[in-house]
User: Fold this.
Amino acid sequence: MRKFWNGKVSRRGLIGGAAATGAALPVVHELVPHQGLHDQAATAAEHKARARAAHRGSGHLGAVGSVDPRANGFDPHEIVRDFDEGIVRGGVREWELVAEDREIEVAPGVRYAAWTYNGRVPGPTLRAREGERLRIRFVNGSSHPHTIHFHGIHRDVMDGIPGVGPGNIAPGESTVYEFDATPFGLHLYHCHSTPLAEHIAKGLYGGFVIDPRQGRPAADELVMVMNGFDTNFDRSNEVYAVNTVAFAYMDKPIRVKRGELVRIYLVNALEFDLLNSFHVHANFFDYYPTGTRLEPRDFTDTVIQGQGERGILELRFPYTGKYMFHAHVSEFAELGWMGFFEVV
Amino acid sequence: MEAAAATVTRRRPTWLAGLVPLLVLGLAIGLFVALDAPGLDRIGVPQEELAVERTVLKPGEIELHVRNDGADPVQVRQVIVNDGYASFAQTDKNIGRLGGAEIDVQYPWIEGQTYEIALLTTTGATIEHTIDVAVETPEAGLGFYGLMALIGFYVGVIPVAIGMLWLPWVRSVDARWTRFLLAFTVGLLAFLGIDALLEGTELAGTGAETLGGAALVWLGAAGAYLGLTAVDGWLARRRQRLDGAGRGDGVRAGAGGVRGLGYRAAFLVALGIGLHNLGEGLAIGSAYAIGSLALGAALVVGFALHNTTEGLAIVAPVARQGAASLPRLALLGLLAGAPAMVGAWIGASAFDPNLAALMFGIGAGAIAQVIVQIAPAVKDEAGRLLHPLAAGGLLAGLLVMYATGLLVSV
Assistant:
């Protein structure tokens, strides 16, 4: 009958109960000698406030601990400026991508059985110039069938989906995808085997940059693949990040130079959540959706991307200092998608 | 060969032979572990389970006391509070089977709000715990213990003492109605016993199942019943010896009839009720600790009415006794009522669902034993147990407890 001890008091139930007994309560409150409790609470609160202030002072927000990039085999600080231009052989630009199962650390101490291209999540950022012939050899070293599906304009057999062209590539098998680099812009490649959400969410995706023929103005170029990890398989993410490791750019900010043009290739590879976003503090940027036009569509400080959407951001930092960037979906930010630029 | 074996057992103490299977078992286990369970491969992922046994809220901090409830060690690596990582410290980074740990989460929680906490383990699994209504947990100090003692006094000692004021009236009624009152007491005790079993079972479900769960309640009940039976037997033998020496006060056990009862029965009733009130104190104290003091305070009045009848139950067995010594009656009252205070202390400062379940079980077992003790005294001259007046008393006891129980149900 008395069900009030085990913490299963619903909020509604408590309010109802309090209303029903409201008249009797103040009396009891006054009857019972408990001033000591109030005093203790006050001092404890002060103590904790001091402790929290000290805690904030350490510059550490959110997750506890740090991720060892050597154990993972890749470092978000290297990935952010790593563009893979492949090798040009006989007028054809070539890459080799190997699918590989690999356990990685996505937040300090939290391990995830990822599927990777070339042992890293996100996969290599492939970069080509508009109109080039591209040839990608895909080797499936994973224990599951996979494909590579490139965004771009090409024939169906090169689309990297099951049942068309080479279709699913079985474990141990390989294939070659070949097509022209068009249109220019910022694209995406990812596995298209089913179940689709699972094959993408486990880490089989990467950025695909096609530069316009005339090129873009010189800049400090960064690639940011927004992603997340469903570590407990409930089809919602426990960890959010750019370039995989939660809070990677919080502990160690991305260094940029004051006044220099910074170009960010922003890709949304997030699964299970419909939207992701990018927001930079104390600054605004030019935004080129999908990077397929040379004129910016927007001058803003926050941009929203749906699943698979991407765009190019250009900005200059007028002042030195530390400037935060994060998803303006606050939940994602607090679950790892948060970082700093350090302007020097 | 049979003869040879017989010679051996004759030469050696017999208990040695009893040890042989244990030694072989020990050896077998040692070998099995040393060889790492030959032939048995683990399939599937680790079973990571943590039971949150206690939650303590302090300003800016949420303290979780967890126990490993699963088969595998659990390594908590991050803590998510309401969809955000929170920084934390833990006493044990690798919580082994049945191991306990304290996880202190830094979080600026706000009173009255709901918090969903997910403990993210190294394998990526989440262990979820909800704080339905966040309220600061009272710190254990003098004032706090005073407050708990006062609540325990209100719900335990005072009502029982008031109920014992029925003694003069109980004495004035004739033997038939005394039997009715004893049957009433049995009904009341039966209600409390069933209540204790149900509450204990429900509580056990909130703790670490591997520690026994609901089995703890029944173990506690059986242990208390057997223990009290043994103590009672010992007391009876002692009393008989004293009677033989001419120093007895005319009380004989189990002889049937009202005169057969007395202070020993009253003592047992008080003890049984006391153990039950310990459980009630636990419930009240823990309700206070999780911030539903409003409910706890509202219950004081209900409990008082509910427990007043317990005082009547204590004095019913001594209806036919000679001069009642006041200190003796006071002691009986304290034995029945004061455990509510102790229970409130434990419940509010160190609540443990498994311990509480065990206590409820002990209370139920003690009550069952007391019922067995009192029942013979309900028999009428013809030796019938369930004569109409007894059945009426029994039913009245159950109904009164049910009705007053409505006042304390939520």
Notes: Chain B touches chain A through 73 residues (CB under 8 Å).
